[in-house]
């Protein structure tokens, strides 16, 4: 094999380029904290890291949705708590109105009080969330579900029984709203019909014993509806909390996996950098010595 000066020079340059590239690569790893700088460095690990990153992103979205669902459920629960208190107070007033010693004036005073409770219940039934959607309208959340007032002693439901849901896990779509008829009753069981008919009986004068019995039964049914829905919400809030714990554990697992795939071992990298600097210096010195010679030196 013939050895030329150009061959010696080219070999020296390649050695310098190889050592410089290795040193530069390690320096970039240390600067970024990543052991994989491009997918070509480790295609398998890069693909796995992409999959884990996407899964982690989806998990974070579920966690965000869980927070939204919790807020929505707590808002509904708060309104139902108020509805339950109104029903219980109305029940006390109905019982008081059954006292035979009361005068017509007394009963009309109770009727006036119950009208205020009617309007308060109607306000709860037409509650909106932060987005302006009505909580108890089903899918028709852009329109007030109940139309009426204490002046007419009636409230008609214009929503539907659709239940809006929110995806809080890969397989769970959680209800975050409830149809108004389910909560406030329908037909003769409607809390508005119960209150309206009893108020009319009080304002009409005469015996109210039969009306008291009917109103108490209707209010008890209304309270059962509210309590049943609240029980479901309570169960869902516990579920959301548990899903949050699971999501946190998953996020930690994903973070650990990504760290193992991507994060640099600084001790190993710095040791390698020092070694590569030594190799580069040796290559530079060797290049200087060899390029300072001619073939006549080798042939002498």
What would you say this structure looks like, in words?
The chain is built from eight helices and four strands, in the order H-H-H-E-E-E-E-H-H-H-H-H. The two termini are 18 Å apart. It has helices spanning 5-32, 43-97, 104-125, 180-184, 191-204, 209-262, 266-291, 295-299; strands spanning 146-149, 154-157, 165-167, 173-175. By secondary structure, the protein is mostly helical. The longest helix is centred in the N-terminal third of the chain and has 55 residues, at 43-97. The strands form two sheets. The protein has a two-stranded antiparallel sheet. Strands 3-4 form a two-stranded antiparallel ribbon. It is 70% helix and 5% strand.
Properties at a glance:
4 strands; 8 helices; two-stranded antiparallel ribbon; mainly alpha; about 300 residues
């Amino acid at each position: 094999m013939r050895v030329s000066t150009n061959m010696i020079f080219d070999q020296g340059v390649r050695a310098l380029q190889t050592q410089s590239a290795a040193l530069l690569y390690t320096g970039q790893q240390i600067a970024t904290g990543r052991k994989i700088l491009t997918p070509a460095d480790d295609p398998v690990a890069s693909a796995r890291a992409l999959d884990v990153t996407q899964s982690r992103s989806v998990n974070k979205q579920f966690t965000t949705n869980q927070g939204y669902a919790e807020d929505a459920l707590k808002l509904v629960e708060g309104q139902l708590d108020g509805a339950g208190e109104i029903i219980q107070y109305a029940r006390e007033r109905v019982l008081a109105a059954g006292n035979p010693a009361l005068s017509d004036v007394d009963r009309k005073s109770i009727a006036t009080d119950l009208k205020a409770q009617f309007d308060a219940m109607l306000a709860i039934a037409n509650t909106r969330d932060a987005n302006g959607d009505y909580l108890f309208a089903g899918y028709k959340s852009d329109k007030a579900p109940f139309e009426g007032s204490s002046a007419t002693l009636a409230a008609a439901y214009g929503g539907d029984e659709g239940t809006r849901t929110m995806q809080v896990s890969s397989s769970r779509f959680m209800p975050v709203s409830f149809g108004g008829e389910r909560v406030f009753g329908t037909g003769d069981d409607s809390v508005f019909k119960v209150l309206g008919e009893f108020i009319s009986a009080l304002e009409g004068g005469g015996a109210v014993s039969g009306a008291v019995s009917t109103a108490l039964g209707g209010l008890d049914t209304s309270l059962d509806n509210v309590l049943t829905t609240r029980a479901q919400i309570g169960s869902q809030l516990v579920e959301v909390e548990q899903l949050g714990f699971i999501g946190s554990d998953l996020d930690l697992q994903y973070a650990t996996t990504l760290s193992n795939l991507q994060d640099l071992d600084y001790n190993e990298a710095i040791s390698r950098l020092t070694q590569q600097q030594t190799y580069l210096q040796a290559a530079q010195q060797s290049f200087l010595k060899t390029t300072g010679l001619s073939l006549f030196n080798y042939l002498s």
